Every structure is written in structure tokens, then in C-alpha cells.
Amino acid sequence: AKAKGLAEYQFYDEVLHEKTMDMLRLETDLRKGVERGEFVLEYQPIVSLQTCEIAGFETLVRWQHPERGIISPEIFIPIAEKTGSIIKLGDWILYEGCCQMKQWLEKIPANRQLFININVSGKQFIQPDFIAKFKETLSQTGLPGSYLKIEMTESVLMKNVDQLNNILSQIKALGVRIALDDFGTGYSSLSYLHKFPIDVLKIDRSFVVQMGARNEKDLVSIIISIAKNMKMDVVAEGIETAAQFKRLHSYDCQYGQGFLFSKPLRTKEAENLIMGTDIK
Ligand code: C2E
Ligand code: CA
Ligand code: CA
Ligand code: CA
């Protein structure tokens, strides 16, 4: 029994060692990957729940690893944030997303509304030169700020209130709007909503999934009424079923996003969808 115990111990130790090595390898690969441009953006439609038309897109980054294939952002974004690679990567994401949106703007009819949402990590916000780089990206790509929404998570709100407000007001002065991502999953309290100039609440998928599970008014409808009171738009995330869609529609939720409408798409597919050349 003793021998087996030792063998087991060695086995787990090896697994642990493997995992550590794997992480270290990913960290190095990530740094190189950013230099080599191994990343690609996908665009997931954000749909108006009243008209079922595409109102905008959220950009979602993917890593095309030379040996491992596509790696999910759930895996590499936390590593990039930890190692600092997120700064360069985030700069590229912002540039690429704005550039793509600018190209689409030139193709769509002038009366067609469309916006692009880009995720910005808290680590990026607190860089001293974030605003300077942000302005430069808008001017280089030629995208008017009013077409852009920045998605940030509640964790950013935990930072210094004055400092963050200063950054957000400079962003907003460019016509860019602010969306609070994964709303309800972080540790922030509702009082934070008053302290920051937030334009859009994105209700996390976990609340959408729970919807209708109980008879009482669900959290989603409560969040929607809070947002309405505060003159914020609402996007419900992770809509997968027609029942969820119907319920959200009855709550008068403005926007929805989820596999029911579309998965995240590559540039060409997304373009076909807005230009209406795709079977819908
Ligand atoms: P997120 O910002 O909350 O993005 C939404 C995630 O939900 C995406 O996963 C999307 O593919 C997925 N999703 C959309 N509709 C559905 C649905 O109906 N059902 C389910 N089960 N999932 C759905 P993805 O692309 O794997 O991204 C995961 C997370 O990685 C993002 O969560 C975000 O936190 C981070 N991320 C992705 N792209 C970026 C980026 O460009 N910058 C930063 N900083 N983070 C990013
Ligand atoms: Ca997001
Ligand atoms: Ca989200
Ligand atoms: Ca999320």
C-alpha cells in the first residue's frame, strides 16, 4: 500500500509539473504569438429584440496557435493579463476592430445603424498612455467614436473611482459609449452604477439561463427595470432558446446576443450577414 501511495504521489506530482510546464510554454508562446500576429477577431451579432435586425457586433479574439490550433480566449486572456501581453494584444484588437468597422461603414447604406463593441481589459485601462493610444487608434482608422462601444467588466469599477471616472469621461468625450459586461457576476454593488457614466448593461448569460426557473419575477426583469430607470440600454447575453427570446422580448429588453441568433463569425460571414447576401 505504501508503494502504491508513493507511485500515486509521483504520478500527481508529474501531472502538476506537466501543467506548470504547459502554462510556462503558453506564456512564452503568447508573447511570440502577439509579435507574429497569430490572432484573429470574430464578430458576434448583437440583435435588436424588437426588430430582430443586427444592431451591432461584439468582437471576440481567437488565437491560432501554430501547433495547437484555435485556443479559446477563456484560456489565454487571463494569461495575457497576468504576463502583461494583454497590452500589445489589446492594442491590436482595438485597432483591428475599429479598422473593420470603418470598412463596413463604407459599404453599408448611410441610413443603416451599426455599432461595434470591443472588450477592453482592466489592465489596459490603467496604462498611463491608454487615452493617448485610444485617440490615435480612432484617428488612424478613421472610425468616428459614436460607432464604438467599450465593454469593461465590473472588476474595473473596483479601482480608484476618480481615476476611472477621469478615463471614462475622456473616452465618452470622443462619442464612445461604455458597456458594463457580465453584469451581476462581479462583486460590485448597485451603487457603482451611479458613480460611473455607464451607457449599456450586458446581463450575463448565467441570469438568462436561470430565467423562468422560478415563478417569482426573475432577476433579469429586475435588472432591465433598473437599467431603464437609469436610462441605460440592456443587452441580454447567451440567448440560446426561443423561450428565452420570447421572455426577454416581453420584458422589453432592447438587445440580445447568443447562439439562437448567431455564433461569433469570421469577417466575411459577418459581412455577408449585414449586406443581406446570406440566407437568414
Ligand atoms: P464575454 O465578453 O462575456 O463574451 C461572450 C462569450 O460568450 C464569448 O465567448 C461568446 O462566444 C460566448 N457566447 C455567445 N453567445 C453564447 C451562447 O448563446 N451560449 C454560450 N454558451 N456562449 C455564448 P468567447 O469568445 O470564448 O470569449 C470568452 C471571454 O473571453 C469573453 O467573455 C471575454 O471575457 C474574453 N474575451 C474574448 N475576446 C476578448 C477580447 O478581445 N479582449 C478581452 N480583453 N477579452 C476577450
Ligand atoms: Ca464582452
Ligand atoms: Ca459578457
Ligand atoms: Ca464572460
Question: What features would you describe in this structure?
Answer:
The chain has helices at residues 2-36, 73-83, 85-107, 122-125, 130-141, 161-172, 192-195, 205-210, 219-229, 242-250, 267-275, and strands at residues 39-48, 54-65, 69-71, 115-119, 148-153, 177-183, 200-203, 233-236, 255-256. By secondary structure, the chain is α/β, with parallel strands linked by helices. Strand 2 (54-65) and strand 3 form a beta hairpin. Helix 1 crosses helix 2 (73-83), helix 2 crosses helix 3 and helix 3 packs parallel to helix 5. The mean pLDDT is 91. The structure holds ligand C2E and calcium ion (3 copies). One calcium ion binds next to loops. It comes from Desulfonema limicola. This is GGDEF and cyclic nucleotide-binding EAL domains-containing protein.
Principal-axes shape call: globular
What is the percent of helical residues?
40-55%
Average pLDDT reading: 91
The oligomerization state is single chain
H/E element sequence = HEEEHHEHHEHEHEHHEHEH
Q: What value does the Rg take, in angstroms?
A: 21 Å
- Which structural class is indicated by helix and strand composition? alpha/beta
Tell me about the biggest sheet? 8 strands, mixed, barrel
Output the number of helix runs: 11
Distance between the termini: 63 Å
Strand order of the largest sheet: 1-2-4-5-6-7-8-9
Question: What compounds are bound to the protein?
Answer: ligand C2E, calcium ion
Low-pLDDT windows of residues: none
GO molecular function: catalytic activity
Organism: Desulfonema limicola
Domain EAL: 23-278
Keywords: Coiled coil
